[in-house]
Automatic annotation (TrEMBL):
Gene3D superfamilies membership: Farnesyl Diphosphate Synthase
UniProt similarity note: Belongs to the FPP/GGPP synthase family.
Signal peptide: none
GO cellular component: mitochondrion; transferase complex
GO molecular function ontology, one term from the record: prenyltransferase activity
Protein name: Uncharacterized protein
GO biological process: isoprenoid biosynthetic process; pheromone biosynthetic process; ubiquinone biosynthetic process
Cofactor(s) this protein cannot do without: Mg(2+)
Any Pfam family hit: polyprenyl_synt
Entry keyword set: Isoprene biosynthesis, Magnesium, Metal-binding, Transferase
């Protein structure tokens, strides 16, 4: 049995030890093979990008803005080009996929008890749209903050148009996402989704702050930041999808917990790949977190074995040779292995959330389980 290091066990969310045997018992062999998405979800994902672009490029809005410029054609063309930039490159669409699958899962649960129709509603589809728009706006802003020049193997918005325009286009995408969100017309759902943006800001501020000196506080700082920046979007979009199904508060909590666990597992794997994947696979430079002065899970685990990493972490790898030394020590340690095991622990928890939500196996159940497995096994 794998036991988490002492400083991790002392942090309350991780007091439970991880058991690979439990994980294998939860994930039956046939569930580890690809499962086709429900036709309804596939169809919605197929139209989602076009619907996002339509919400960004609403003709009346574009005409209204263009009225106030000397060259309306050039203005509208520039705004359209910047708005389409990340959406046209075709992201993984993980967040809307999870949101739609959670909608289908909660609707299925409600239908079984009320004998009603389990179709995904228009408002639930809007949650998927808003989730992807918020995510894309965050990428634009993150690239400015991190001074990144490439993403997905292409120049970033700020590299192409400059920081000022990149910030404005990120704000514009968020504003349009807000309009889509308001069209749902349910204050509790709107408030839940608004928490995502609040958490993103809090997470970014935590990342800008210097990490605490004690190992336990440092890891808590990292995991809190990771939830705010990644887990919150998964968690609150899943919860919103559940709320719109009309299901119970306990089911809403399960949906939220699934999103939280999946989001944390996703980011933990992302942090591992920053050390092991090639730049071409990632679409951005490797070891980018270290170069930005960020201590992520692998180096925090490595510091438990190599205390000489502590001063490097505290000064955010700012001195010559710090990045190279940290990279070498991480690869000599169990930091990468332990990070994957922690991600697997959250994967186990996410799959257990699904088992409680949908006790009877079926297509939606298996799709959600496989969505967890794909994140744990991905190489980019």
């Amino acid at each position: 049995m794998y036991i988490l290091p002492r400083f991790i066990r002392n942090f309350s969310p991780f007091k439970r030890s991880f058991s690979p045997q439990i994980f294998e018992a939860i994930v039956e062999p046939q569930q580890q093979h690809p499962v086709e998405l429900p036709n309804e979800v596939t169809k919605m994902l197929g139209s989602l990008k076009d619907d996002i672009l339509e919400s960004l490029m609403e003709r009346t809005m574009m005409n209204g803005l263009a009225t106030y410029t000397d060259n309306p054609f050039k203005f509208t063309k520039e705004l359209r080009e910047m708005s389409r930039y990340y959406f046209d490159k075709g992201g993984k669409m993980i967040r809307p996929t999870i949101s739609l699958l959670m909608s289908a899962a909660c609707n299925q649960q409600m239908a079984s008890s009320t004998n009603s129709i389990a179709d995904i509603s228009l408002n639930q589809y809007r949650i998927a749209i808003v989730a992807e728009m918020i995510h894309s706006a965050t990428l634009v802003h993150d690239d400015v903050i991190d001074e990144s020049n490439t993403r997905r193997g292409q120049p970033t918005t700020n590299a192409r148009w400059g920081n000022k325009r990149a910030i404005l286009i990120g704000d514009f995408i968020l504003a349009r996402a807000t309009k889509v969100l308001c069209s749902i017309g349910q204050p509790q759902v709107i408030e839940t989704m608004a928490v995502i943006v609040e958490d993103l800001v809090k997470g970014e501020l935590l990342q800008l702050n210097s990490p605490p000196q004690s190992k336990n506080a440092r890891f808590k700082h990292y995991m809190t930041k990771t939830f705010y920046k990644t887990g919150s979007l998964f968690s609150n979009s899943c919860k919103s999808a559940a709320m719109l199904s009309g299901c119970s508060e306990s089911t809403q909590h399960l949906a939220s917990e699934f999103g939280r666990n999946l989001g944390l597992a996703f980011q933990l794997i992302d942090d591992v790949l920053d050390y092991v994947a090639s730049a071409s696979e990632l679409g951005k430079p490797t070891a980018s977190d270290l170069r930005l002065g960020l201590a992520t899970c692998p180096v925090l685990f490595a510091a438990d074995e190599f205390p000489e990493l502590d001063p490097l972490i505290e000064r955010r790898f700012s001195q010559p040779g710090d990045v190279e030394k940290a990279l070498e020590l991480v690869k000599c340690s169990n930091g990468l292995q332990n990070s994957r095991k922690l991600a697997r622990q959250h994967g186990e928890a996410a799959i257990e959330n699904i088992r409680q939500l949908l006790p009877q196996r079926g297509q939606i159940h298996d799709c959600l389980v496989n969505s967890v497995l794909r994140q744990l096994e991905r190489q980019r």
